[in-house]
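A reminder from the course coordinator: this example appears on the midterm review sheet, so study it carefully.

Given structure:
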């Protein structure tokens, strides 16, 4: 090999070496980049729940309480730094706190009243009304009551109206026993009390006063289950939870006796005691991410809690409308 041919071969080999080095560097860069992407797992991070913290205060209807309490428990399992407190001071009592700015969400078994709207406006409290389920107010008697299967709206009115003189069962129907009636029902701050009196008596909050009243429906269950002559009323969920201790009474609204159930409450045949129930989140509170995420959860994953605690879910379109109100 002469000198010129040797120089040419060296030059060719040098070019090959450069190409190989560039290729190795590119491969190393690619491997390193892929390694970083695998370590960071951005897809997994995107699926993780947002990091939330803070306290959410809810109060109001004892009827809505089981739903809000169940949703709160599930939400706090996902967001351990968030504390959700749920009270049941009655719909009226809840609105008093809410319109004073003391709570973030108000549970209600009736729509907000004009006086409550005015109180909210005075205190700068804006809110969103969100229907979340259907309920059927249930009339119940003691489990050992073997004479009452149904009552008409007119009979219930005569029993509960303010001027009622009925104190014994045989004053309602002669064939019923000469036994004293012990009455149990919600307190005057309760939305259930307002709805029942309007639907049965004909005017909201008009009722006889000589009955055992409580904002805690569990106390009403205890009272009725402990007295053979007792009769009471409260939300359907509390009957379902205690049906081994109580007897449900079918209500005749004019088309024959109807027992409350998921079907009769949903289709409106259990009348006049079927009704929607609500939550009212404060717009100011919704500016906090923990509150907004809680309400979103309530209207999506939380909906499955509604039938579990004895109420009837709204159509899907209602929850979609509520979600749209959050935007």
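Designed residues:
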């Amino acid at each position: 090999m002469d000198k010129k041919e040797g120089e040419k071969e060296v030059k060719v080999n040098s070019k090959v070496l450069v190409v190989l080095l560039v290729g190795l560097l590119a491969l190393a860069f690619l491997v390193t980049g892929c390694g970083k992407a695998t370590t960071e797992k951005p897809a997994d991070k995107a699926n993780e729940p947002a990091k939330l913290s803070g306290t959410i205060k809810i109060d109001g209807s004892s009827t809505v309480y089981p739903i809000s309490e169940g949703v709160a428990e599930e939400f706090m399992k996902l967001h351990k730094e968030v504390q959700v407190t749920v009270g049941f001071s009655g719909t009226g009592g809840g609105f008093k706190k809410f319109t004073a700015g003391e709570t973030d969400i108000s549970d209600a078994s009736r729509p907000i009243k004009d006086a409550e709207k005015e109180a909210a406006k005075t205190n700068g409290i804006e809110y969103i009304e969100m229907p979340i389920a259907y309920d059927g107010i249930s009339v119940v008697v003691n489990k050992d009551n073997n004479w009452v299967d149904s009552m008409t709206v007119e009979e219930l009115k005569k029993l509960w109206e303010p001027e009622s003189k009925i104190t014994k069962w045989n004053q309602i129907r002669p064939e019923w026993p000469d036994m004293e009636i012990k009455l149990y029902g919600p307190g005057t701050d309760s939305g259930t009390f307002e709805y029942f009196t309007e639907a049965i008596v004909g005017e909201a909050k008009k009722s006889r006063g000589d009955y055992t009243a409580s904002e805690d429906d569990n106390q009403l269950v205890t009272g009725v289950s402990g007295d053979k002559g007792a009769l009471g009323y409260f939300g359907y969920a509390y009957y379902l939870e205690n049906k081994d201790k109580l007897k449900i009474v079918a209500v005749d609204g004019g088309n024959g006796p109807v027992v409350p159930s998921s079907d009769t409450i949903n289709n409106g045949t259990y009348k006049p005691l079927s009704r929607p129930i609500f939550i009212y989140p404060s717009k100011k509170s919704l500016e906090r991410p923990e509150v907004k995420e809680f309400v979103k959860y309530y209207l999506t994953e939380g909906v499955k809690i509604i039938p579990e605690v004895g109420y009837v879910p709204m159509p899907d379109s209602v929850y979609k409308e509520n979600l749209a109100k959050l935007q």
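The first strand starts at residue 54 and ends at 60. Residues 2-46 have pLDDT under 50 and may be disordered.
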